[in-house]
Design goal:
- The complex is a heterodimer of chains A (about 140) and B (about 1100).
- Helices cover about 40% and strands about 15% of the residues of chain A.
- Chain A has helices spanning about 20-30, 50-60, 80-100, 115-130; strands at about 10-15, 40-45, 65-70, 105-110.
- Chain A has a 4-stranded parallel β-sheet with strand order 2-1-3-4, with helices on both faces.
- In chain A, helix 1 (about 20-30) crosses helix 4.
- The radius of gyration of chain A is 15 Å and the shape is globular.
- Helices cover about 30% and strands about 20% of the residues of chain B.
- Chain B has 33 helices and 50 strands.
- In chain B, helix 6 crosses helix 7 (about 195-205) and helix 12 (about 330-335) packs across helix 14.
- Classes of the chains: A alpha/beta (about 140), B alpha/beta (about 1100).
Chain lengths: ~140, ~1100
């Protein structure tokens, strides 16, 4: 069994490049501090986030997945974040069916001006995922 | 080709290397698959750093590159270009962001290094799967859109236009000029603002390359850099831009005054206006906010605001003309209307509604007193004769509208005189006959023929006489019975018969004691008439409470004053008779139960509570019903016994016969009958012209919303003077009418809800015929290559800072307001004095109001220090010897010439106090403080000692803040906001006017507070950006578009639903979908929606993203 260590939890984040990735950059330029547990993938739009990526992340062994895009109504591509929002709801339902704690998959809406919010989101996500322990779903022992 | 990857880790000085062990990261990368070389270097973005990559590509045959440095938002284009220059496709490059998202967000060196490794590992694994992509080029449209006509927009537009390219300059207000046009002098040089701005404005208006779209707003933007498609709404000015020569005749004629936006409400402007004298374009605009509530509430749609506004200007004749555009009964309605207009009057939300009905009466009386000119007979233009049966308000209103449409009209009236219930049911003391006679003769003068004493027995007879259409307005003339014992005994009369006989001058006798049953106007009229005929004790018996009485409130009040008694919550159960003679009436007490269909509480009898009222006469006034025996039996009736008509057209079931008024509604008021008559007139016109009755009817205008009610001084509504009780002899009119002064004063209370009242005085005044109230908004479509957004700022509204007293004290002003006051073209023509006109001796200027304040805006607005000093200087220039106190936190004199300006002002004798005042009050503690405003503060250098400074005036140096609708502009142009709410530039230092959306630039104060020189510099810079874009001719656009593998595509077309850009076509032949790469924006939403997994997004394929994710776990 994997244990909670300093490196744990490992979280992968899918950030849309217009809002959330820019918000994460702003957190950096304004030197907000947050845990190093999250590593980020840039996607053009949260609408590009295939539910399979979320599942693949958990399958690979990440303890949590963060999906983040523009605020509803502010999508650079008009409606992509609405699609993301619906897809994430369905994905979470599916995971619930599999018995995966819902904290493992989280969504948030962060705009390009919300550096401080992004740092807070990371803090929260790390804390929430740490609370449900390491992801042993697909470990050899499990 | 086998991937050969080079990895370059940037130190970024100590920005990365100070936290991340870059050597370790570089070593780690060296062990990854396909990595042929790794290096770490101080500044990868520098020339030597870039050359490192180029040399390795050439010497080691690299075909893929990873740079781990800052955010790709910053240097991805740099390194892509490096790759391209060295012969590697720019898409075979990947960046790992180990600064913004790694070294800068943690102090944990181990964690940062571990995270940097994960990011580099991920990037290496991702770039392994990258595919070279073809960069597409599109031609750049050489036109430019500039949004916002302040100094920023003007400067940018002029520069681009001078270079020979077309510019669309869009400004939403009627004139360009922006805030700069409102300024008096500009710091630090004290140039006159108008003197340096207006020449530029004129240049704009004359420039052959600038299409100025003032009073317009951008509605929609689509497309991308080089090819934006924009839709601009050119709002209707109601003034022909080509005909108006700015002569101001219309402005003089317009009766409507509203606060001037340009002078910040310190002066008034007209509804047809030009914001300021030097406005560009120099033409007038009519401001229509919507239909005023008085007009939408009126069943007949009378333009009350129009005549009220004209009365306020003493134009009584014109006021009456406005009224007569809709209906002819100003004198009648001015007396008896139920005035729903007043119930909805916005002034009622401030204090009391405008006395609209009394004003209406005033203008009618005024005309009658002055002597009315004979109306001009309307020229008959139509051949089809129309018959109107019944000369009540419905019939006459219908006749009035039709005669004005040119139809020959004949009215048939059974009674000896025309007017219907207006004549026979409303007593003389309320509606003198000369008033009604006058208005009926006015209708006759227009050409309407009225045949009295003429009863119509059948429609056929009328049609046989050659009439092509009939309007039936025969009213509801049969009094309803109560259904109680002895109802028909001698001495019991019905109110309608009673009032009619009195009106006809018959000798009507009443006993000493009279009971009137009912609570409507007919009951009160009957009661007061009985009183005038000599009855000593008149009692109204009403089954509900006083609040439910449908009679006009004032009528009931006057009745009570005249000695009428009201028995509320009582209903008659029997008429008492002794030997066939009426002796009294038996009533029962009622109580109110649940509300019924009329939403009034239903009266219920209380058992055993019967009581008797001894009376000599009973007058029954409980309503009337339609006499069904009058006309043909073929007419269809409703279950209520009224004639059945189509609710829109008022057409009965008989071809060509229309009906309106009480005959279709049951007993109702005059104005509703007029409405029905007017609607029927429209139908009859349509009917005779053979057009669809329902189609093309005038649309009721929409009621105005959000009527501003700031700064309105409460003022009581004028009370209608009435005849003293002891002077009410016979049937003399009780209400005596407004005097001229009262009417004007009352009319001036109007809030002018709709702004333009549509009185059409301007139309009459315009010799060039430039005014067209029917003008519609226009949509202008344009294609542009670049967009410059210069939408400016708003001044912070200090009303929220209660302690500074803005809005509470007359002499607390904002800096911009004060700027207008010192301006010689401003509301006081440059005379600086207190609100009451008295002399100003000293003034306090409080800096940083709304700026540098956690409660409002944390940022510094950058201009307030200097403009405050400037205002201090201007005070002393206008009022020699005035003392000026500047309350400051720091004086920020950072710009060119600012420090020198500061020194100059200090030398002039302005007193600087380092303090942020805690408040402004008007409570004097010493005789010196009497009548002054007191600024409360503690000096920074003497904390803890509260001080008071009495001054005459306080100026608040308010912050600049983003425009209220900044979010909409963001959405429109795809711009982001920074944390302060202003627009976010792409890079604060190196790309300060570009935005995240290519081809969209932000300049001036919409990007952040700044002064005029900085704004102009940015504007010129934006012009350079746009011209550089145009000069390139073509532009590379994103190659990362979606791609459909047609071999797998099932043709389900779900992707087509998902795509917000309609970029996916269905190919009938083959039954598959195909992406149109020109339209595709590369969002990738379709990929996740594809069931057959046949769509991929280039450069963001599932393979690439999963590979990236896989190596993150190293």
């Amino acid at each position: 069994m994997k244990q909670n260590t300093e490196e744990q939890p490992r979280i992968v984040g899918f950030l849309c490049k217009w809002c959330s990735y820019a918000g994460a950059d702003l957190a950096g330029t304004s030197r907000k501090k947050y845990p190093s547990n999250l590593t980020v993938l840039k996607v053009p739009c949260s609408g590009r986030i295939d539910p399979l990526f979320v599942l693949k992340g958990l399958r690979l062994g990440f303890d949590g997945v963060l999906v983040s895009g523009c605020h509803p109504g502010d999508c650079h591509y008009q409606t992509g974040n609405y699609r993301a929002r619906r897809r994430i709801v369905v994905t979470k339902k599916f995971l619930e069916y599999l018995g995966v704690p819902e904290q493992r998959v989280q969504a948030s809406w962060v705009s390009a001006s919300e550096g401080a919010k992004f740092a807070q989101v990371v803090e929260d996500v790390v804390e929430n995922v740490r609370a449900v322990g390491p992801n042993n779903l697909f470990s050899d022992e499990g | 080709m086998e991937p050969r990857i080079g990895v370059y880790v940037c130190h970024c000085g100590s920005n990365i290397a100070g936290t991340v062990d870059v050597a370790e990261v570089s070593r780690f990368a060296g062990d990854l698959d396909a990595v042929k070389v790794t290096r770490d270097y101080k500044f990868m973005c520098s020339e030597p750093g870039q050359n490192l990559i180029k040399d390795d590509i050439r010497e080691l045959g690299l075909n893929r590159v990873v740079v781990a440095s800052c955010s790709p938002a910053l240097h991805e284009p740099t390194f892509r270009r490096v790759c391209q220059e060295a012969g590697v496709n720019p898409y075979l490059f990947q960046m790992a962001n180990i600064r913004e998202q790694c070294s800068w967000v943690t102090e944990d060196h181990n964690g940062a290094t571990r995270k940097a490794k994960a990011l580099v590992g991920a990037a290496v694994n991702r770039v392994y799967y990258h595919q070279p992509l073809e960069i597409r080029q599109v031609p750049i449209n050489p036109n430019t859109l500039v949004v916002g006509g302040g100094i920023a927009g003007i400067q940018a537009a002029l520069k681009i236009a001078d270079a020979g390219h077309k510019v669309y300059l869009v400004e939403r207000t009627p004139s360009i000029g922006g805030h700069m046009a409102q300024l008096d002098k500009t710091f630090p040089t004290l140039d006159c603002s108008a003197c340096i701005l207006t020449p530029k404005m004129t240049l704009v208006s004359r420039h052959p390359n600038i299409e100025l779209l003032a009073y317009s707003e951008v509605e929609d933007v689509s497309g991308f850099i080089g090819n934006f498609k924009v839709k601009i709404r050119k709002k209707a000015r109601y003034v022909d831009i080509n005909k108006c020569n700015g002569c101001t005749e219309c402005e003089n004629a317009c009766p409507v005054e509203v606060p001037s936006e340009f002078n910040l409400g310190l002066s008034k402007r007209k509804a047809i206006y030009r914001p300021f004298h030097q406005a560009v374009p120099n033409i007038f605009t009519i401001h229509k906010r919507g239909a005023p509530p008085c007009r939408t509430a009126c069943p007949a749609g009378v333009d009350a605001q129009g005549y009220v506004a004209l009365i306020s200007k003493g134009k009584y004749k014109e006021a009456l003309e406005v009224f007569r555009r809709t209906q002819p009964f100003a004198g009648v309605c001015g007396r008896v209307c139920t005035h729903p207009c007043e119930a909805d009057c916005e002034r009622g939300k401030v204090d009391e509604p405008i006395a609209i009905r009394y004003l209406k009466r005033f203008m009618a009386d005024y005309e009658l007193k002055a002597g009315r000119e004979k109306a001009v007979k309307v020229k008959q233009t139509q051949q089809e004769k129309v018959a109107v049966i019944g000369s009540g308000p419905a019939g006459l209103a219908c006749a009035y509208d039709l005669i004005r449409l040119g139809y020959p009209i004949t009215v048939f009236e059974a009674a000896p005189e025309a007017g219907g219930l207006m004549r026979y049911a409303i007593p003389e003391y309320r509606l003198p006959r000369k008033i009604l006679d006058n208005e009926i003769s006015y209708i006759q003068e227009l050409g309407v023929e009225i045949h009295t004493n003429t009863r119509v027995d059948s429609f056929k007879g009328v049609f046989d006489k050659g009439y092509k259409a009939i309007f039936m307005g025969t009213g509801a003339g049969i009094s309803q019975k109560m259904g109680i014992p002895n109802e028909d005994v001698d001495g019991v009369v019905h109110s309608l018969d009673f009032l009619r006989k009195v009106r006809l001058g018959e000798d009507v006798k009443v006993g000493k004691r009279v009971a009137v049953i009912g609570g409507g106007n007919a009951a009160v009229d009957a009661a007061r008439t009985a009183r005038r005929l000599g009855a000593e004790e008149v009692t109204i018996v009403y089954r509900r409470s006083r609040a439910e009485m449908p009679a006009l409130y004032a009528e009931v009040e006057e009745g009570l004053r005249e000695g009428i008694k009201i028995q509320i919550l009582a209903a008659p159960v029997a008429v008492l008779a002794e030997q066939g003679r009426l002796s009294g009436i038996q009533c029962i007490r009622m109580q109110l139960g649940e509300p019924d269909e009329s939403k009034r509480r239903r009266p219920m009898p209380i058992k055993g509570s019967e009581f008797n009222i001894p009376v000599d006469n009973v007058i029954i006034a409980i309503g009337q019903i339609v006499d069904r025996t009058l006309l043909t039996r073929d007419l269809e009736y409703t279950s209520f016994g009224t004639v059945s008509v189509d609710p829109t057209t008022f057409h009965t079931n008989i071809e060509g016969v229309f009906a309106g008024g009480d005959v279709i509604s049951g007993p109702d008021d005059v104005i509703s009958a007029i409405e029905a008559g007017k609607e029927a007139a429209i139908s009859i016109d349509h009917y005779l012209k053979g057009i669809d009755l329902k189609g093309g009817r005038p649309v009721r205008p929409e009621r105005v919303k959000n009527v501003p009610k700031e700064n309105i001084v409460k003022k009581a509504r004028k009370i209608m003077p009435v005849l003293e009780l002891d002077k009410r002899e016979g049937f003399a009119e009780v209400e005596t009418g407004f005097s001229e002064e009262m009417a004007v004063e009352e009319a001036q209370r109007c809030l002018n809800c709709g702004v333009c009242s549509e009185c059409w005085e301007c139309v009459k005044s315009c010799e060039r015929g430039a005014i067209d109230h029917g003008m519609k908004d226009e949509i202008v479509e344009a294609v542009v290559g670049g967009i410059i957004v210069a939408t400016g700022y708003e001044m912070f509204k200090p009303r929220g800072i209660y302690e500074y007293g803005y809005g509470r004290f007359d002499n607390v002003l904002t800096a911009l307001e004060f700027e207008r006051i010192v301006n010689s073209a401003g509301p006081t023509e440059g005379h600086v004095h207190l609100k009451d006109g008295s002399e100003l001796k000293n003034i306090a200027i409080i800096h940083c109001v709304g700026s540098r304040d956690k409660n409002y805006h944390e940022y510094c607005s950058r201009v307030c220090c200097m403009y405050s000093l400037k205002l201090g200087h201007l005070v002393r220039e206008h009022v020699p010897g005035a003392k000026v106190y500047e309350f400051y936190i720091d004086v920020r004199a950072f710009g060119k010439g600012f420090e020198e300006f500061y020194n100059r002002i200090t030398r002039e004798g302005t007193t600087f106090i380092e303090a942020r005042p805690s408040g402004v009050t008007n409570v004097a503690e010493t005789p010196q403080e009497e009548g002054k405003l007191i600024v409360h503060y503690e000096e920074e250098i003497h904390p803890g000692i509260p001080r008071r400074l009495p001054v005459d005036m306080v100026v608040l140096s308010t912050a600049m803040e983003p425009q209220e609708d900044v979010k909409n502009v963001c959405r429109l142009f795809n711009i982001n906001q920074s944390a302060d709410g202003f627009f976010l530039e792409r890079h604060p230092k190196l790309d300060p006017i570009a935005t995240a959306t290519d081809g969209v630039f932000v300049i001036g104060c919409c990007q952040g507070p700044k002064d005029i020189p900085d704004t102009v510099a940015q504007a010129s810079a934006a012009a350079a950006e746009v011209l550089s874009l145009i000069g390139q001719g073509n532009i590379d656009i994103e190659a990362a578009t979606a791609f459909i593998d047609e071999k797998i595509c099932s043709g389900c077309q779900i992707c087509r639903i998902v795509c917000p850009y309609s970029a996916i076509d269905f190919i009938e032949e083959g039954g598959v979908c195909r992406v149109n790469e020109v339209l595709c924006k590369g969002c990738g939403a379709c990929v996740g929606g594809c069931f057959s997994n046949s769509i991929s997004l280039k450069h963001f394929t599932g393979e690439q993203l999963v590979a990236e994710m896989e190596n993150m776990l190293i």
